[in-house]
Write a structure and sequence with these properties.
It is built from 5 helices and no strands. With 113 residues, it is mostly helical. The protein has one domain (10-112). Helix 3 runs antiparallel to helix 5 (90-112). The longest helix has 23 residues, at 90-112. It is globular and about 40 Å long. The N and C termini lie far apart (44 Å).
């Protein structure tokens, strides 16, 4: 399988690198607050595309092991959040991020209506 790069996931790379950067914890108390900041800052279309990129990465992750997925997220997408410190696998965390983005978008759309 070809190594995945941030060029294949441009909005997910931007989400990870800009929102889960080395000092993310100085800007938000937890991962959910980071996600809320992202939803607040980005357009609906950008958030929806990020959700699609997560879905695609999760589909592709079926064909790689956990260590490879972690390396992609840490090194290629430059994400400095470590879900394993909380007993959560990288795949489960990505699923949670996807669900949280979807729920946040639903709330944002409902509030704007």
């Amino acid at each position: 399988m070809k190594i995945m790069t941030k060029q294949q996931f441009p909005l997910l790379a931007q989400f990870c690198g800009a929102y889960f950067h080395q000092n993310w914890y100085l800007e938000a108390p937890d991962a959910l607050a980071v996600i809320r900041n992202y939803i607040k800052d980005k357009s609906i279309a950008q958030v929806q595309q990020t959700i699609r990129e997560i879905e695609r990465l999760l589909l592709l992750s079926r064909y790689i092991d956990t260590d490879q997925l972690t390396k992609i997220i840490e090194y290629e997408l430059q994400c400095y959040y470590n879900p394993t410190a909380y007993g959560i696998s990288m795949r489960d965390w990505l699923n949670w991020v996807q669900i949280s983005l979807k729920q946040g978008m639903s709330k944002a759309i409902a509030l704007s209506a």
